Amino acid sequence: MAQKGVQLDGENICCSICLDFLKDPVTTTCGHSYCRNCIQTHFDEEDRKGIHSCPQCRKTFTPRPVLEKNTMLAALVEQRTNRNLSYIYELT
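Structure for RING-type domain-containing protein, as requested:
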């Protein structure tokens, strides 16, 4: 089952901020998942306002939410990366 905020296009597992494979995936309290650095940068930019929001659904958080690593997505990304590396190795 696909999580909110994550694009599962075939075997691609991508961050909706950077549109790249998730790196150190974390999930917000509203259930959307992002690369840790992407969402931290987003929240850093919102620090001046004192209200933080999810870039996907715009739900607001006060105070800034604590981000938890999404171990399931991390495992999926690692599997995908390992498959890509195996495929590249086979081509060489």
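The longest strand covers residues 6-9.
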